[in-house]
Amino acid sequence: MTDLIIEKMGRAGHVTLNRPRALNALTHQMCLDLELAMIDWAADDEVGLLLIDAMGEKAFCAGGDIVGIYNEGKSGQVDNALKFWRDEYRLNHAISTYVKPYVAIMDGIVMGGGVGISAHGSHRVVTERTMFAMPECAIGLIPDVGGTYLLGQMPGVCGEYAGLTGARLTGADCIYAGIADYLVPSDKLDDLKTALLDTGDVAVLQEFAIVPDGSVLEENRASIDAIFALGRIDEILLSLQGDPTDFAQTALKGLSRGAPLSLKTTLAAIRAAREDGSLLGALRNEYRIVSTCLQDGELIEGIRAMVIDKDRSPKWKYPTLESVPQDMIDRLYQPAQGGDFAVE
Questions:
Q1: CATH no. for 4-333
Q2: Catalytically active residues, by annotation
Protein backbone atom coordinates (compact mmCIF):
# COMPACT_ATOMS: atom_id res chain seq x y z
CA MET A 1 0.00 0.00 0.00
CA THR A 2 1.42 3.35 -1.05
CA ASP A 3 1.63 6.16 1.49
CA LEU A 4 0.70 8.72 -1.15
CA ILE A 5 -1.92 8.13 -3.84
CA ILE A 6 -1.15 10.27 -6.88
CA GLU A 7 -3.43 10.28 -9.91
CA LYS A 8 -4.74 12.59 -12.59
CA MET A 9 -8.51 12.67 -12.50
CA GLY A 10 -10.73 14.70 -14.79
CA ARG A 11 -9.24 18.18 -14.97
CA ALA A 12 -7.12 17.97 -11.83
CA GLY A 13 -4.14 16.34 -10.21
CA HIS A 14 -5.28 14.49 -7.08
CA VAL A 15 -2.99 13.63 -4.15
CA THR A 16 -4.27 11.65 -1.16
CA LEU A 17 -2.28 11.04 2.01
CA ASN A 18 -2.75 7.35 2.77
CA ARG A 19 -1.48 6.60 6.27
CA PRO A 20 -4.71 6.89 8.28
CA ARG A 21 -3.49 4.63 11.11
CA ALA A 22 -0.54 7.01 11.60
CA LEU A 23 -2.86 10.04 11.30
CA ASN A 24 -1.34 10.50 7.84
CA ALA A 25 2.02 11.53 9.31
CA LEU A 26 4.33 12.86 6.61
CA THR A 27 7.45 10.89 5.67
CA HIS A 28 10.47 12.10 3.74
CA GLN A 29 9.50 10.03 0.71
CA MET A 30 5.98 11.45 0.70
CA CYS A 31 7.46 14.96 0.47
CA LEU A 32 9.64 13.98 -2.46
CA ASP A 33 6.78 12.24 -4.27
CA LEU A 34 4.44 15.21 -3.82
CA GLU A 35 7.09 17.56 -5.16
CA LEU A 36 7.60 15.44 -8.28
CA ALA A 37 3.85 15.31 -8.92
CA MET A 38 3.67 19.09 -8.63
CA ILE A 39 6.46 19.49 -11.16
CA ASP A 40 4.75 17.13 -13.62
CA TRP A 41 1.34 18.76 -13.34
CA ALA A 42 2.70 22.29 -13.58
CA ALA A 43 3.61 21.51 -17.20
CA ASP A 44 0.42 19.57 -18.00
CA ASP A 45 -2.20 21.69 -19.78
CA GLU A 46 -4.89 19.13 -18.93
CA VAL A 47 -4.48 19.81 -15.21
CA GLY A 48 -6.34 22.90 -14.00
CA LEU A 49 -5.59 22.52 -10.29
CA LEU A 50 -3.99 20.30 -7.67
CA LEU A 51 -6.25 18.83 -4.98
CA ILE A 52 -4.72 17.34 -1.83
CA ASP A 53 -6.73 15.45 0.80
CA ALA A 54 -6.30 12.47 3.09
CA MET A 55 -7.73 9.06 3.90
CA GLY A 56 -9.86 8.79 7.03
CA GLU A 57 -12.00 11.31 8.88
CA LYS A 58 -9.74 11.82 11.91
CA ALA A 59 -6.78 13.64 10.40
CA PHE A 60 -5.57 15.41 7.31
CA CYS A 61 -2.01 15.14 8.62
CA ALA A 62 -0.91 15.17 12.26
CA GLY A 63 2.68 16.18 11.48
CA GLY A 64 5.98 14.84 10.29
CA ASP A 65 7.39 11.43 11.10
CA ILE A 66 9.00 12.51 14.38
CA VAL A 67 9.56 8.93 15.54
CA GLY A 68 11.88 8.47 12.58
CA ILE A 69 13.66 11.71 13.45
CA TYR A 70 13.99 10.52 17.05
CA ASN A 71 15.56 7.22 15.99
CA GLU A 72 17.98 8.99 13.67
CA GLY A 73 18.92 11.50 16.35
CA LYS A 74 19.51 8.78 18.93
CA SER A 75 21.74 6.87 16.52
CA GLY A 76 23.70 9.98 15.52
CA GLN A 77 22.32 10.09 11.95
CA VAL A 78 21.75 13.82 12.07
CA ASP A 79 22.42 14.31 8.35
CA ASN A 80 19.34 12.27 7.41
CA ALA A 81 17.07 14.44 9.54
CA LEU A 82 18.60 17.61 8.15
CA LYS A 83 18.04 16.36 4.59
CA PHE A 84 14.40 15.69 5.45
CA TRP A 85 13.96 19.22 6.78
CA ARG A 86 15.64 20.81 3.76
CA ASP A 87 13.51 18.83 1.32
CA GLU A 88 10.34 19.46 3.32
CA TYR A 89 10.99 23.21 3.51
CA ARG A 90 11.70 23.32 -0.23
CA LEU A 91 8.31 21.68 -0.77
CA ASN A 92 6.59 24.19 1.55
CA HIS A 93 8.02 27.07 -0.45
CA ALA A 94 7.11 25.40 -3.76
CA ILE A 95 3.50 25.07 -2.61
CA SER A 96 3.36 28.77 -1.75
CA THR A 97 4.56 29.73 -5.24
CA TYR A 98 2.82 27.00 -7.26
CA VAL A 99 1.75 28.13 -10.72
CA LYS A 100 -1.65 26.44 -10.51
CA PRO A 101 -4.33 26.54 -7.81
CA TYR A 102 -3.36 24.30 -4.89
CA VAL A 103 -6.49 23.21 -3.04
CA ALA A 104 -5.97 21.65 0.40
CA ILE A 105 -8.80 19.91 2.24
CA MET A 106 -7.82 20.49 5.88
CA ASP A 107 -10.37 18.14 7.43
CA GLY A 108 -9.64 16.72 10.90
CA ILE A 109 -6.29 17.13 12.65
CA VAL A 110 -3.81 19.47 10.96
CA MET A 111 -0.50 19.84 12.78
CA GLY A 112 3.22 20.25 12.10
CA GLY A 113 4.15 18.93 8.69
CA GLY A 114 0.46 18.83 7.79
CA VAL A 115 0.37 22.59 8.13
CA GLY A 116 3.27 22.91 5.71
CA ILE A 117 1.53 21.00 2.90
CA SER A 118 -1.83 22.73 3.31
CA ALA A 119 -1.73 26.24 4.80
CA HIS A 120 0.74 27.54 2.18
CA GLY A 121 -1.65 26.60 -0.60
CA SER A 122 -3.66 29.09 -2.62
CA HIS A 123 -7.08 27.65 -1.68
CA ARG A 124 -7.46 26.17 1.80
CA VAL A 125 -10.64 24.41 2.92
CA VAL A 126 -11.56 23.67 6.55
CA THR A 127 -14.59 21.96 8.07
CA GLU A 128 -16.37 21.76 11.43
CA ARG A 129 -14.01 18.82 12.20
CA THR A 130 -10.81 20.77 11.62
CA MET A 131 -8.42 20.88 14.57
CA PHE A 132 -5.42 22.99 13.64
CA ALA A 133 -2.48 23.29 16.05
CA MET A 134 1.24 23.90 16.17
CA PRO A 135 2.24 22.31 19.51
CA GLU A 136 5.95 21.94 18.72
CA CYS A 137 7.11 23.74 21.88
CA ALA A 138 5.88 20.75 23.89
CA ILE A 139 8.35 18.45 22.11
CA GLY A 140 11.28 20.83 22.35
CA LEU A 141 10.99 22.18 18.81
CA ILE A 142 9.58 25.39 17.33
CA PRO A 143 6.68 25.81 14.89
CA ASP A 144 8.45 25.19 11.59
CA VAL A 145 7.52 24.30 7.97
CA GLY A 146 6.94 28.03 7.61
CA GLY A 147 4.79 28.04 10.72
CA THR A 148 6.44 31.12 12.18
CA TYR A 149 5.54 33.01 9.00
CA LEU A 150 1.89 31.88 9.18
CA LEU A 151 1.72 32.72 12.88
CA GLY A 152 3.30 36.11 12.28
CA GLN A 153 0.62 36.95 9.71
CA MET A 154 -2.29 36.28 12.07
CA PRO A 155 -4.34 39.24 13.38
CA GLY A 156 -2.69 41.13 16.22
CA VAL A 157 -0.59 38.70 18.24
CA CYS A 158 -2.86 35.69 17.79
CA GLY A 159 0.19 33.95 16.32
CA GLU A 160 2.17 34.31 19.53
CA TYR A 161 -0.79 32.88 21.43
CA ALA A 162 -1.24 29.92 19.07
CA GLY A 163 2.48 29.16 18.72
CA LEU A 164 3.40 29.38 22.40
CA THR A 165 0.39 27.53 23.81
CA GLY A 166 -0.19 24.98 21.03
CA ALA A 167 -3.86 26.06 21.10
CA ARG A 168 -6.29 23.98 19.09
CA LEU A 169 -7.98 26.12 16.47
CA THR A 170 -11.32 25.31 14.90
CA GLY A 171 -12.25 25.80 11.28
CA ALA A 172 -13.82 29.15 12.17
CA ASP A 173 -10.63 30.15 13.99
CA CYS A 174 -8.57 29.25 10.92
CA ILE A 175 -10.70 31.49 8.72
CA TYR A 176 -10.36 34.37 11.20
CA ALA A 177 -6.61 33.81 11.52
CA GLY A 178 -6.09 33.90 7.75
CA ILE A 179 -4.74 30.35 7.48
CA ALA A 180 -7.81 29.05 5.64
CA ASP A 181 -10.13 30.48 3.02
CA TYR A 182 -13.31 28.40 2.91
CA LEU A 183 -15.42 26.59 5.51
CA VAL A 184 -17.26 23.66 3.96
CA PRO A 185 -19.44 21.20 5.94
CA SER A 186 -17.79 17.79 6.08
CA ASP A 187 -20.85 16.09 4.59
CA LYS A 188 -20.37 18.20 1.44
CA LEU A 189 -16.70 17.33 0.90
CA ASP A 190 -17.27 14.42 -1.46
CA ASP A 191 -19.45 16.57 -3.71
CA LEU A 192 -16.92 19.40 -3.57
CA LYS A 193 -14.04 17.12 -4.52
CA THR A 194 -16.03 15.66 -7.42
CA ALA A 195 -16.79 19.14 -8.70
CA LEU A 196 -13.15 20.25 -8.41
CA LEU A 197 -11.85 17.14 -10.17
CA ASP A 198 -14.45 17.28 -12.94
CA THR A 199 -14.04 20.97 -13.74
CA GLY A 200 -10.51 21.87 -12.65
CA ASP A 201 -12.06 25.20 -11.65
CA VAL A 202 -11.67 26.63 -8.14
CA ALA A 203 -14.75 28.81 -8.67
CA VAL A 204 -16.87 25.87 -7.48
CA LEU A 205 -15.50 26.41 -3.96
CA GLN A 206 -17.87 29.37 -3.55
CA GLU A 207 -20.85 27.10 -4.16
CA PHE A 208 -20.03 24.91 -1.17
CA ALA A 209 -18.59 27.40 1.33
CA ILE A 210 -20.60 28.64 4.30
CA VAL A 211 -20.08 31.61 6.61
CA PRO A 212 -18.01 30.62 9.69
CA ASP A 213 -19.42 31.24 13.12
CA GLY A 214 -18.02 31.32 16.65
CA SER A 215 -14.28 31.91 16.46
CA VAL A 216 -12.67 31.63 19.90
CA LEU A 217 -9.75 33.67 18.62
CA GLU A 218 -12.03 36.50 17.62
CA GLU A 219 -14.00 36.34 20.88
CA ASN A 220 -10.83 36.55 22.97
CA ARG A 221 -8.85 38.88 20.74
CA ALA A 222 -8.66 41.69 23.29
CA SER A 223 -7.19 39.41 25.99
CA ILE A 224 -4.78 37.81 23.53
CA ASP A 225 -3.46 41.17 22.35
CA ALA A 226 -3.09 42.49 25.89
CA ILE A 227 -1.16 39.46 27.17
CA PHE A 228 0.80 38.03 24.25
CA ALA A 229 2.12 41.38 23.04
CA LEU A 230 4.27 41.55 26.17
CA GLY A 231 8.00 41.52 25.50
CA ARG A 232 9.17 38.38 27.32
CA ILE A 233 7.89 34.89 28.14
CA ASP A 234 8.12 35.49 31.89
CA GLU A 235 5.93 38.59 31.51
CA ILE A 236 3.37 36.61 29.52
CA LEU A 237 3.38 33.87 32.18
CA LEU A 238 2.83 36.35 35.00
CA SER A 239 -0.02 38.00 33.14
CA LEU A 240 -1.73 34.66 32.51
CA GLN A 241 -1.25 33.63 36.12
CA GLY A 242 -3.00 36.80 37.22
CA ASP A 243 -5.98 36.29 34.92
CA PRO A 244 -8.64 33.98 36.45
CA THR A 245 -10.67 33.51 33.24
CA ASP A 246 -11.00 30.01 31.80
CA PHE A 247 -9.42 31.19 28.56
CA ALA A 248 -6.29 32.52 30.29
CA GLN A 249 -5.92 29.48 32.53
CA THR A 250 -6.21 27.11 29.57
CA ALA A 251 -3.60 29.17 27.72
CA LEU A 252 -1.36 29.02 30.80
CA LYS A 253 -1.54 25.22 30.89
CA GLY A 254 -0.63 25.03 27.22
CA LEU A 255 2.28 27.42 27.53
CA SER A 256 3.59 25.65 30.64
CA ARG A 257 3.99 22.41 28.66
CA GLY A 258 6.59 23.99 26.38
CA ALA A 259 10.34 23.64 26.79
CA PRO A 260 11.70 26.97 28.04
CA LEU A 261 14.23 26.99 25.19
CA SER A 262 11.47 26.43 22.64
CA LEU A 263 9.24 29.10 24.15
CA LYS A 264 11.94 31.78 24.04
CA THR A 265 13.05 30.83 20.55
CA THR A 266 9.49 30.60 19.22
CA LEU A 267 8.60 34.06 20.49
CA ALA A 268 11.69 35.52 18.83
CA ALA A 269 11.12 33.59 15.59
CA ILE A 270 7.47 34.63 15.18
CA ARG A 271 8.34 38.28 15.70
CA ALA A 272 11.30 38.04 13.34
CA ALA A 273 9.06 36.45 10.70
CA ARG A 274 6.48 39.20 11.09
CA GLU A 275 9.12 41.89 10.68
CA ASP A 276 10.73 40.17 7.69
CA GLY A 277 7.39 39.42 6.04
CA SER A 278 8.58 36.59 3.79
CA LEU A 279 8.07 32.83 3.93
CA LEU A 280 11.60 32.24 2.65
CA GLY A 281 13.09 34.29 5.49
CA ALA A 282 11.03 32.37 8.04
CA LEU A 283 12.10 29.00 6.61
CA ARG A 284 15.74 30.07 6.76
CA ASN A 285 15.41 31.07 10.41
CA GLU A 286 13.49 27.92 11.28
CA TYR A 287 16.17 25.76 9.69
CA ARG A 288 18.84 27.55 11.75
CA ILE A 289 17.02 26.47 14.90
CA VAL A 290 15.88 22.94 13.98
CA SER A 291 19.34 22.08 12.65
CA THR A 292 20.63 22.40 16.22
CA CYS A 293 17.69 20.73 17.96
CA LEU A 294 18.78 17.12 17.65
CA GLN A 295 22.19 17.57 19.26
CA ASP A 296 22.17 20.80 21.24
CA GLY A 297 18.48 21.35 21.89
CA GLU A 298 15.54 19.62 23.54
CA LEU A 299 13.96 17.68 20.66
CA ILE A 300 15.11 14.15 21.52
CA GLU A 301 13.91 14.43 25.12
CA GLY A 302 10.67 16.05 24.05
CA ILE A 303 9.81 13.28 21.58
CA ARG A 304 10.77 10.66 24.17
CA ALA A 305 8.48 12.12 26.81
CA MET A 306 5.51 12.91 24.60
CA VAL A 307 5.60 10.19 21.92
CA ILE A 308 7.96 7.29 22.77
CA ASP A 309 7.55 6.68 26.52
CA LYS A 310 4.48 8.94 26.81
CA ASP A 311 5.26 9.80 30.43
CA ARG A 312 4.73 13.50 29.64
CA SER A 313 7.50 14.36 32.07
CA PRO A 314 10.38 15.70 29.97
CA LYS A 315 13.70 16.38 31.68
CA TRP A 316 14.75 19.49 29.81
CA LYS A 317 18.43 20.48 29.58
CA TYR A 318 17.28 24.00 30.34
CA PRO A 319 14.41 23.55 32.82
CA THR A 320 13.78 27.24 33.49
CA LEU A 321 13.59 30.37 31.39
CA GLU A 322 16.56 31.77 33.28
CA SER A 323 18.70 28.74 32.44
CA VAL A 324 18.35 29.15 28.66
CA PRO A 325 21.69 30.42 27.26
CA GLN A 326 21.36 33.56 25.18
CA ASP A 327 23.58 32.05 22.49
CA MET A 328 20.87 29.46 21.80
CA ILE A 329 18.46 32.28 20.97
CA ASP A 330 21.13 34.10 18.98
CA ARG A 331 21.38 31.17 16.56
CA LEU A 332 18.22 32.51 14.95
CA TYR A 333 20.37 35.29 13.53
CA GLN A 334 23.40 33.21 12.56
CA PRO A 335 23.90 30.94 9.52
CA ALA A 336 23.25 27.26 10.15
CA GLN A 337 26.22 24.97 10.45
CA GLY A 338 26.59 23.35 7.03
CA GLY A 339 24.81 26.25 5.33
CA ASP A 340 21.48 28.03 5.51
CA PHE A 341 18.32 26.72 3.91
CA ALA A 342 17.80 28.27 0.49
CA VAL A 343 15.65 27.53 -2.56
CA GLU A 344 17.93 26.40 -5.36
A1: 3.90.226.10
A2: 64, 113, 136, 144
